[in-house]
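User: Let's play a game. I give you a shape written as tokens, and you guess the letters that built it. Ready? Here's round one.
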């Protein structure tokens, strides 16, 4: 995508539409998704040094995972504020909070990751799980996050690792590519794999002014499904970027893709359950001044 004057607005509009389309799928599948994802969350809570009583800002909060896990870690004395571009995701998070009866967490929609609407210096930790890579200027977003942190506060962010290490996404893409011409990818453009290495996050956090930056890649469970069909249903209702790609195809192409996916995954997992692991990156940095 050309980086003209409307680049950032166009990226956000696209993201808002993509995630609004999958918010119902995320809402229906939140418990199922949060199981495997809890491995990334656990690492973020530990690396971020999140403790009882902390005030935590969770940017790109989605339907509230990891915000609820963080809310548990900070306890009733603490507070978590989840912010997201998508009203639909935020509404789903609020309904989950009502259902769980969680009182130390709040969710708000933001127009942009550059307008967080929070007082400067008011949070102990900021988290962003699997969100930075979709932002038009993640470094600028991190500068805003830094502004919101107290001196000594920490940011902890995670992204997906390299595509070849994440078959949960690369395998569906491979299947889709057998039946449709995929749009040309600009490697620098925001998307699932825009920040796939520890070095990418390290550079971002350092440039945004954080100190003591540490970053590492690790293997993690990603998808767990009862059968290839259930797995594919998940892909086509949850995986934001893939869902919009599928929506741009004809019904006939989608049917052929669905059948191909069932066959490909059936051969890989003849016993039934589909278990795909992947690679994620977690980085942490401190606001020293
Ligand atoms: C892959 S989901 C991750 C949600 C949640 N953090 C999680 O780990 O489950 C990406 C989220 O980023 C949000 N998002 C994308 N671009 C954003 C932006 N520029 N500012 C804030 N949120 C954004 C989307 O609306 C979506 O909820």
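Assistant: Ready! My guess for every position:
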């Amino acid at each position: 995508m050309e980086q003209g004057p409307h680049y950032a607005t166009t990226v956000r509009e696209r993201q808002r539409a993509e995630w609004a389309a999958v918010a119902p799928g995320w809402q229906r599948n939140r418990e199922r998704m949060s199981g495997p994802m809890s491995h990334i969350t656990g690492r973020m809570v530990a690396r971020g040094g999140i403790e009882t009583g902390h005030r935590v800002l969770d940017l790109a909060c989605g339907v509230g995972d990891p915000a609820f896990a963080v809310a548990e870690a900070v306890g009733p004395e603490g507070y978590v504020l989840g912010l997201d571009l998508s009203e639909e995701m935020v509404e789903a998070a609020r309904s989950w909070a009502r259902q769980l009866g969680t009182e130390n967490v709040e969710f708000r929609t933001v127009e942009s990751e550059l307008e967080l609407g929070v007082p400067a210096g008011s949070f102990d930790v900021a988290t962003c799980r699997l969100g930075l890579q979709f932002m038009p200027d993640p470094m600028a977003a991190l500068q805003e996050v830094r502004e919101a942190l107290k001196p000594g506060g920490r940011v902890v962010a995670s992204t997906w690792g390299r595509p070849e290490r994440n078959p949960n996404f690369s395998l569906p893409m491979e299947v889709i590519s057998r039946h449709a011409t995929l749009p040309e990818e600009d490697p620098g453009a925001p998307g699932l794999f825009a920040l796939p290495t520890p070095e990418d996050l390290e550079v971002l956090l350092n440039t945004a002014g954080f100190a003591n930056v540490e970053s590492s890649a690790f293997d993690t469970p990603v998808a767990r499904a009862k059968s290839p069909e259930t797995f594919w249903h998940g892909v086509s209702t949850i995986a934001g970027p893939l869902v919009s790609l599928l929506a741009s195809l004809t019904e006939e192409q989608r049917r052929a893709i669905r059948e191909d996916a069932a066959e490909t995954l059936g051969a890989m997992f003849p016993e039934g359950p589909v278990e795909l692991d992947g690679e994620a990156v977690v980085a942490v940095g401190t606001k020293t001044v």
